Structure formats: C-alpha cells, structure tokens
C-alpha cells in the first residue's frame, strides 16, 4: 500500500552561519590570494575610494612560499577563517529573535566579521615572530577596519540562510 501523505521536504538552504562562513572563506581565498594582491597593488589608485577598498580586500594575505615559515605567514588568514566561523555560530542574535528578522542576520554577520578581523590581527601579531603588545594593538585597528568594510559581504551572505 502506497502512502499518499508524504511529509513535505524541507528546502536545502544553509544556515545563516554556514553561508556567512562560506562568504568569509571566499573573501580570504580570493581577496587574500597573491594574484589578487599583486593585481590590486599594481592596478588600483590608492588615493581613490574604490582603489583603497580593493586594496583593503587583500588584507588577509596568504602566500604559498614563505621565508619565515608557512604557518606564521598565513596565520592571519587561517585565524580569520576560524574566528569568523566561531563568531558566526556563537552570536545569538538571529537564533533568539521571536520573529526571524533579516536585519538581525545581516548585522550579526557583519558584526561577527568585523570582530573577527580585530581579534585575528591581535592574535596573529602576538603569536607571530617579534610580536609586541603595542604592535598587536596597532594591527587590531587594521583588522577591524578590514572587517568593517568587508563584513557587509558576510552580512549579505548570512541573509541567504535560515537562522
């Protein structure tokens, strides 16, 4: 006997944290790549807003070959992905809302990436060679700047997932 009342299938959409993490991965993989970094340095105007933004996207730079060791050179890119993923999953905004609000998902993703940029720069500088607390504080300001201006992309990606 065949069942006529089958349960409705749930659409296969990712979670807000999952889609935000994917966007963060793409930002680091593409924007931090040596090829993009070289292109941005050679083909953009650093005095214009567009050129400044395109150069900023290469902040989590990673390299295939490094003199000081591959891990220390790529520590910032690796930490950015780990911290961003953790914060996207831990920030409770979209999960505790009574009504699923897209604004909450957007701001949660954006804020998580901005915070991840600052934490990443701080930790990568402290854990890297010759890291001082003063240098870590200075680097954190650059990381937060990157996270603030690139984080809206992660926030938009978080809109595509369920809470």
Please render the helix and strand layout as text.
Blueprint: H1 16-31, H2 34-43, H3 49-56, H4 70-90, H5 93-96, H6 102-127, H7 133-158
Helix pairs in contact: 1-4, 1-7, 4-6, 6-7
Transmembrane segments: 12-32, 75-94, 106-127, 133-159
Keywords: Membrane, Transmembrane, Transmembrane helix
Task: Describe the protein in words.
The chain has a domain at 23-30 and 71-158. It has 163 residues and is mainly α. The longest helix is centred in the C-terminal third of the chain and has 26 residues, at 102-127. The protein is built from seven helices and no strands.
Cα(first) to Cα(last) distance is 38 Å
Identify the overall geometry.
globular
Pairing-aware structural class of the strands and helices? Answer: mainly alpha
What is the CA-atom radius of gyration, in angstroms?
19 Å
Give the biggest beta sheet: none
Number of separate helices: 7
List the uncertain runs: none
Helical proportion, percent range: 55-70%
Mean pLDDT: 85
Approximately how much beta-strand content do the residues carry?
under 5%
> What's the count of strands?
0
| SSE pattern, N- to C-terminal | HHHHHHH
Keywords: Membrane, Transmembrane, Transmembrane helix
Q: What's this, in brief?
A:
The chain is 68% helix and 0% strand. With 163 residues, the chain is an all-alpha fold. The chain has a domain at 23-30 and 71-158.
Features:
membrane, 163 residues, 68% helix, transmembrane helix, mainly alpha, globular
């Amino acid at each position: 006997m065949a069942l006529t009342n089958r349960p409705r299938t749930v659409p296969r959409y990712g979670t807000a944290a999952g889609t935000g993490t994917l966007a963060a991965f793409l930002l680091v993989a593409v924007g931090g790549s040596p090829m993009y970094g070289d292109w941005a340095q050679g083909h953009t105007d650093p005095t214009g807003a567009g050129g400044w933004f395109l150069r900023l996207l290469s902040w989590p730079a990673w390299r295939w070959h490094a003199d000081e060791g591959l891990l220390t050179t790529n520590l910032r890119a690796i930490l950015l992905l780990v911290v961003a993923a953790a914060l996207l999953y831990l920030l409770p905004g979209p999960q505790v809302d009574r009504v699923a609000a897209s604004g909450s998902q957007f701001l949660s993703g954006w804020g998580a990436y901005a915070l991840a940029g600052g934490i990443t720069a701080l930790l990568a500088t402290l854990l890297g060679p010759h890291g001082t607390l003063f240098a870590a504080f200075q680097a954190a300001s650059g990381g937060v700047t990157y996270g603030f201006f690139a984080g809206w992309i992660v926030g938009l990606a978080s809109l595509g997932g369920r809470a």
